[in-house]
Amino acid sequence: MTRRTTRRRFMGQSAAIGAGFWIGSQAVSKGQDSPLQSLSAACIGVGGKGGSDTSHIGEQGVAIVGLCDVDGGVLTKKGREFPDAKQFTDYREMLDQLGDKVDIVTVSTPDHNHAAAAIKAMRMKKHVYCQKPLTWSIREARMMREVSQEMGVVTQMGNQGTSEDGLREAVEVIRSGAIGDVAEVHIWSNRPVWPQGVGRPEGEDPIPEDLNWDAWIGPAPMRPFKKGVYHSFNWRGWVDFGTGALGDMACHTTNMPVMALELWDPIAVTAVKNPGIFEGETFPGSSALMFEFPKRGNLPACKFYWYDGGNLPSDDVITQLPESFQKRIQQQREGGRKTSGAVLVGSKGLLFSPDDYGAQYYLLPEDNFKDFKKPEQSLPRIPFKAGGDQRQKWEFVSTVKGEYEPGTMSNFGYAGRLTETILVGNLAMRAGEGQRIEWDAKSLQSTNLPAVNEFVQREYREGWSL
């Protein structure tokens, strides 16, 4: 396996994207000449999103030799698709047994297990595809960046919008100065669509015979099993396991503006609307946050506003959107379906995306951009034609094979910084409404509110480690 070639490419692209730029070349197909044509993978979490992640990796000609899921029913079902794959309910056992037989590991578990699984795999020199958000904690995101670079492996986070031509074009448009200097970004989400703002239920239920509850809990503190409360979907709202509405969707919805505007390392975050963590157990049912970013090179200081649970930007932002979308906003206010959107407010106009993945955008007001000509392409386009999820898997596998020279765009060098930026927002949920948390990204600490620093990382439960 051409580890040194892969390492050079990875380190180069990590440095480029970490600085907010992307340097690439044309894709070069090496066909059967590649020494990495025959690849094998072990997949951790194979239900729900993990089910499609596993299938899509397999569609790229990768042999699926290991399947791991804590739910025996899910494991049996996926095993019918990949009958030759060995089955496990604990990813530690799978990696220990199959470590010398796999090239790729996918991680599609609840957030709290991402880092422990992915870092173990990377330290074994495995290329890793990991779902978003990259990690449960800020410190874990930093570690994922560091370990991936140290080990020189190919990585990709599952924010598939990164692989869409529309997102890459929008980034080029913003960087070209088409909408001028951007000092405000507004992003709102229709999440959560799971319970938040609730306390821990009393009592416990019998653990199903086909559920490995200990492995599901993983590095988090142990708690009793309650049917339908955590496994298999509602875990996102619980602070021990998920990262709430912000963690679930911001790696998608903020991806395009973060990349275009180099929105790394906020210097402060304030929870403008913050009912607070409910009984220390779940994220609030709704929130509104304000991130502050300093001047970055030639880019002016910028404030990024996040809204979830039905919260929306003020009318001075909404009234500048297309009339058809304003009608949807009005329907939401009247109790209708919640919307999602992203608005970048520039000195020359607005860029609006109603797409969770940043793959569709409008320049507003339309009259000001009638004669607009798109800037020269500066970011690579993926030649593989398919859905966004499958294109991202092609980008990942083709990079592992050495056939796609630009490499993965959402590699952990980029995705780690994106995740760090986002998860600082969850620290604000720990503070009171209106409390401004000053943040030092270098040391991963709040300089004015030390009480929140205990949530930057946590001690793992015995038997689990990074």
Fold and architecture overview:
- The protein is of the alpha/beta class and 466 residues long.
- It contains 14 helices and 15 strands.
- It has helices at 3-18, 49-59, 72-81, 91-98, 114-123, 138-151, 165-175, 213-217, 244-253, 255-261, 315-318, 323-333, 388-401, 412-430; strands spanning 40-44, 63-68, 86-88, 104-107, 127-131, 155-158, 182-188, 268-273, 287-293, 302-308, 341-346, 350-353, 362-364, 436-440, 445-446.
- The chain has a 9-stranded mixed β-sheet, covered by helices on one side.
- Strand 14 and strand 15 (445-446) form a beta hairpin.
- Helix 5 packs parallel to helix 6 (138-151).
- The protein is globular.
- The relative contact order is 0.18.
- Mean pLDDT is 93; it is low at 1-36.
Quickly list its features.
single chain; 466 residues; alpha/beta; Rossmann fold; nine-stranded mixed β-sheet; six-stranded parallel β-sheet; 14 helices; 16% strand; globular; disordered N terminus
